Amino acid sequence: MKWNQVSVLTTSEAVEAVSNILMESGANGVAIEDSMDVLNFESDAFGEILDITTFDHIKEGAKVIAYFPETVFLPEILPTISLRVEQLKEFGLEIGENTIETSEVLENDWATAWKKYYHPVNISRYLTIVPEWQEYTPHSTDEHVMKLDPGMAFGTGTHPTTRLTLQALEVVLRGGETVIDVGTGSGILSIASKCLGAKDVYAYDLDDVAVASAKENMNLNPVAKDVFVAPNNLLVGVDKKADVIVANILADIIIKMIPDAYRCLTDEGTLIISGIIEEKEASVLVYLEENGFVVDQRFSQRDWLALIVKKATED
């Protein structure tokens, strides 16, 4: 069987949104080439640094590569894909060139091509993400190895927003907490929470593909097999109280979630939010203050931010 490869040239900021558009359009898998990933490996202070001269990589922006079965009539769906990517500007996302290229791929090539983009990633001294098809030997007894299969739809921790969120979790979690993971995607934040000692973890995502992927990844990690994973629209209708709520999603979506996050947090609870591009920080801070939150810590990597937030207390 042949597959049609559709590549969208965009920006690092828009890769997740573009990936969702392609999956919703009928793609059976997505791979991501992101110039920021190479920069992150070069600047990473943890673990082994990849020799970027040993593999081909995109030099600017990002490319989302989707695979469609040959039964899908591309001329019918490509204009819609292009339009939907263009509409991302309305959400404040820079989309870059929005150039679309197509080609044919044999099934054997499709089944393995996307795996070459993923390598073990040392997020910190204690957290390492390893693609499930690769062997990896921990460097120390206190290193947590998290196995992940992105299912050709989700990343494996190389994006700055994921790294920042994982590092924030490492700062906050002490053991025994109840955690809610909003927009779980691959489930990596839930897995990390369990590795860092969280007692109960609830993972939600609006996308059924994400829910299925997250469940599969929980099963790859024995520590996370008891994580509750379910479809849900952010925190709408969730009545659980959490010690920690973590969300690595777009700034405009975070803003919509803030009132429910306040409701679902314990009085001493912590909100960790990431996926915030620098120019969106001011608007997020306004909504946080209006809803009774104060920023406790701020993490940054290049143009991306993560915030550790607490409920404001009266002096």
Write the layout of secondary structure elements.
Blueprint lengths: L1 E9 L4 H10 L4 E6 H9 L18 E8 L4 H13 L12 E8 H7 L7 E2 L4 E5 L12 E5 L11 H13 L5 E5 L5 H8 L4 E6 L2 H13 L7 E4 L10 E7 L2 H14 E13 L3 H10 L2 E9 L2 E8 L4
Parallel strand pairs: 6-7, 8-9, 8-11, 9-10, 11-12
Antiparallel strand pairs: 1-3, 1-4, 2-3, 5-6, 12-14, 13-14
Helix pairs in contact: 8-9
Mind explaining what this structure looks like?
This is Ribosomal protein L11 methyltransferase. It is an enzyme of class 2 (transferase). It comes from Candidatus Vagococcus giribetii. Methylates ribosomal protein L11. The protein is α/β, with parallel strands linked by helices. It folds into two domains: 2-116, 2-Layer Sandwich (Alpha-Beta Plaits), CATH 3.30.70.120; 149-311, Rossmann fold (3-Layer(aba) Sandwich). 31% of the residues lie in helices and 30% in strands. The protein contains nine helices and 14 strands. Strands 10-9-8-11-12-14-13 form a seven-stranded mixed β-sheet, with helices on both faces. Helix 8 runs parallel beside helix 9 (281-290). The longest helix has 14 residues, at 251-264. The chain starts with a strand and ends with a strand.
